[in-house]
Amino acid sequence: MEVSLTVNGQAVTSEVEARTLLVHLLRENLGLTGTHVGCETGYCGACTVHVDGTPVKSCTMLAAQVEGAEVTTVEGLANGELHPVQEGFWERHGLQCGYCTPGMIMTAAGMLADNDNPSEDEIRHGIEGNLCRCTGYHNIVRAIEYAAAKMRGDEPAAPDWEVV
Amino acid sequence: MTTSPVTRKRIRGGIGESPLRPDGIPKVTGNFAYASDLHAEGMLWAATLRSPHPRARITKLDTAPALAVGGVVAVLTQDDVPGRPGFGMHVPDQPVFAAGECNYWGEPIAVVAASDLETAKLGVAAIVVEYEVLEPLTDMEEADAADSQTRRMKIRRGDRTVSGAVSVEGYYEVGQQDQAPLGNEAGLAIPDGDGGVDLYAVSQWVHSDHWQIYPCLNLEPEQIRCHPVGMGGAFGSREDVSMHIHLCMLALRTGRPVKMMFDRAESFVGHVHRHPARMWYRHEADADGKLVKVEARLILDGGAYESSSNAVIANAAYFAMGPYLCDNVFIDSVAVKTNNPPAGAMRGFGGVQTAFGHEAQMDRLADELSIDRLEFRRRNALGQGDPMNSSGQIIEGSLPTAELIDELASMPIVEPLASDDPRHLPGGTGLTTNPDHVKRGMGYGVTIKNLAFSEAFDDYSDVRISLSPIGVEVYTAAAEVGQGMVTIIQQLAREVLKIEQVAVVWSDTNVIGSAGSTSASRQTQMTGGATYQCAVELRQQILDEFGGDDLSSEGVWRDGDLLVTLAEVCGGGAKEHEIRYRHPETFATDENGQGDPHPAFAVAAHRAVVDVDPELGLVRVVQLDTVQDVGKVLNPVAALGQIEGGALQGVGMAVLEELVVDKGVIKNPNFTDYLLPTFLDAPHIEVRFVEEPERWGPLGAKGIGEPPTISAGPAVYAAIQDAIGRHLHRVPVLPQHIVGSS
Fold first, then answer.
1. Is B641 on the interface with A (CB under 8 A)?
2. Which residues lie closer than 8 Å to B573 by C-beta, 6 or more apart?
3. CATH 3.30.365.10 given to domain A2-76
């Protein structure tokens, strides 16, 4: 079957099977490998993208379901520049291996679009559906706080570590 | 020669700073190339047929039906292995494919290359294979009784007739943990058209892969080039060969690039896991609270093949009693061979299992003596100049155990949570916990680990530095698995050469010699040490050639004047220097485990606070406070990241993570049933560093990756027991253990 949609602002049409998952459409058909596959069961969130502005785990959605939709992947989150969330993950060491990072960024960007001043608890609950095995999560929380401040037009808080 | 009033620019991104990761931009924009993202024109996809039985004889194997599937290009089995039939980290005891007999559930039997992944899987399904199912050996004590083992190791030190005023005995079990890196195994092999192949597959040590691959392919070493590649974490799971030989064989057979990518379920059977363990301990102390004797028996299940079991069991034995002084130590340990999934390297490597045992024993002894648990550890703290309790090796490097304990004791203890938010209760929004029933507990874990490779292993890292007017290039094969090695190499090169532009060139096995494994907490010291030493020597060569006293990005200086520019220095071509860096020599120990097996040690101390619902068996890890012996901090943010992430893997091991292996079959090979800590499981964590420089390595820095994983778990385990007021003998601690139903 054929599916037509908008991906990162570009109209695309692609031949898929009825059972093809959105993540495979993105990675295999369109070559957008920034969206990662971690578990294939909806638990890790490494495959998170935006469908019509809402974060979804793209391994839990069929390609056929995005007919006519607007899909944004990590590659299309910002045009040539860094989205504040991307900047936060880099600036606040919110990544190590980086495999979970695109999914974390897409979930966080979706969360901050709804609430640009979340508490630490709100951040942790807002992104609890994404797994990271490297960081212990704290720097990811700091990265999202950094991004939230930037999106509000505030100066991000200084890093919470010091060398004494 | 030029002389001018040029002033030297300050160099940013040196030691002690936290420069941003150079791989940060590609990783946040989705442009970083992981092994799973690789693509080559005309490539085939491969899939693996795996044994459905832990032990069986293959009575029929017919690949013809698979070859008849449209789109299938090749099907290979053990009959197609052109060279040595097996591979292995230490001994080549694992056949490339099971032939004759399958020895574990999931052992590869054949591989299929096809036009696409789905077709390759159809090919796998079409292979006709018949088995005579055999009774598997899956109990580690039965294996020990049957003398099915890869290494027995004993420690005999001191006088066994000595006894203390108090004695405690304990039995402990540790379940099997999976590394569970977020990125699954993946690789791409590309034939070079000349009988050789380039392999881009996940690896913590490309040279070790290389040494195992080319004999199996019966090729000259330089015909196989293993390339470092991007990967989504490792934690030990990528130290062993998995798909590597299969991919090379398929590429050579088909003449086309071949890609393989495990899914999560296959990843769980496609890499080695942490060894499950059973441990018996007797500790004795005198009335003043000094340890006088430790006896232990340790069994670790290594599964079907040796992998790194023999080094893991040595670590378990050498570090069986933690960082405490004791002169009478008697340990019998064994790594057994069974039909369970092969066990091998995972962060902490043998020291993790025994840490649960020795720390529980220290608590029991302290309680028996009515001495504060931390004070009891302090009284027995092992330090620089002391003999190592197990091997008797005099500890020449730094070992600030007492300082760590003092620092940990000085950290403020977290207050009980004022919030009545049910999400902060054990069990969270399940809303099953009555807040009035929650009990708070506190526990400690103080642990020790060797750094880099031990027991006479020729451990080295090769680095080549090239200096040109546009900057510095550092050539290395050291695996960057996410830990931030790339930043550390840059910082060290900048620090010495005073040139800001430093690029790390990840190089294949034909371009540069081995960097050793990204494991054993060793790369900061080994490849970092190699980078530092190489830069120092290159700088000196340049200064000698031009008669200068300083080098920077401007050029060579003498007495504050610029003698020659960098362009002039490199007028005859880039300045290059290559070195092989080794740590102090280590030695095999004698039949009693006595000698000098280790190049360096590091300690870590954790204090955990937990809330427990004893009726429902629910645990919430509230707080971790930790102090770590780091030698010298090279990059504070990267060090914090390693410690926070490593500690959470220890927490996971204490309360969540266990591979359920039933009669040799993994029952939970997915993230639905194998539970990883989430954002909500991560406790608040406070980290402090103690800096006492190590005798070797760059600027006194120590490796930091493994110690936090080792000490966090025992602290949580102790805190749970403190909360419920009862001894528990198994980790992970599950609800049924807490409520006492098992």
1. yes
2. none
3. no
The strand pair at A70-72 and A2-7 is best described as parallel
**Superfamily of domain A84-152, CATH level 4:** [2Fe-2S]-binding domain (1.10.150.120)
CA distance B299 to B280: 9
For chain B, say whether A6 makes contact (Cβ under 8 Å).
Answer: no
Q: How many CB atoms lie within 10 A of CB B471?
A: 16
Tokens of residue A157, six digits: 């808080």
- Is B86 in the same domain as B203? yes
How do residues B467-491 score in pLDDT, each as one tens digit? 999 999 999 999 999 999 999 999 9
* Angle subtended by helix axes B351-369 and B309-318, to nearest 10: 20
* Partner B, chain A 39-68, Cβ-Cβ below 8 Å: 39-41, 43-44, 46
For residues B282 and B168, the answer to whether their CB atoms sit within 8 Å is: yes
- The answer to whether position B15 is within a domain reads no
Q: Where are the beta strands (DSSP E) in B123-202?
A: 128-133, 149-157, 166-174, 186-191, 197-201
Residue A80, sorted as left (phi over 0), alpha (psi -120 to 50) or beta, turns out to be left
pTM for this model (two decimals): 0.97
Chain A residues lying within 8 Å of B180, measured CB to CB: 133
Q: Is residue A2's pLDDT more than 60?
A: yes
Residues 6+ apart with CB under 8 A from B262: B184, B185, B186, B242, B243, B270
Residue B342 structural domain: 277-454+589-739
Do residues A135 and B645 make contact, with C-beta atoms less than 8 angstroms apart? Answer: yes
Please answer yes or no on whether B679 and A127 come within 8 Å at the CB atom: yes
Q: What DSSP designation does B360 have?
A: H
Sign of CA dihedral B201, B205, B210, B211: negative
CATH number for B497: 3.30.365.10
- Looking at the domain assignment, is residue B287 inside a domain? yes
DSSP B320: T
Task: Identify residue B87 by its one-letter amino acid code.
Answer: F
3-class secondary-structure state, position B249: helix
Quick one: which of B443, B284, B448, B289 has its CA closest to B354? B448
Q: In the block, which residue shows the tokens 């990843």?
A: B267
| C-alpha gyration radius of chain A | 16
Task: Tell me which of B7 and A12 has the higher pLDDT.
Answer: A12
Q: Are residues B414 and B525 in the same domain?
A: no
How many other CB atoms sit within 10 Å of the CB of residue A80?
Answer: 5
Question: What's the number of domains chain B is made of?
Answer: 3
- The string of pLDDT tens digits covering residues B651-675 is 999 999 999 999 999 999 999 999 9
User: Shortest Cα distance from B623 to chain A (angstroms)?
Assistant: 13
Residue-wise pLDDT tens digits, B110-156: 999 999 999 999 999 999 999 999 999 999 999 999 999 999 999 99
Closest CA to B323 of B587, B602, B688: B602
The span from the CA of B619 to the CA of B606, in Å, is 18
Tokens representing A82 are: 């860094």
8 Å CB contact between B81 and B252: no
Count CA atoms within 13 Å of residue B249 on its CB side.
28
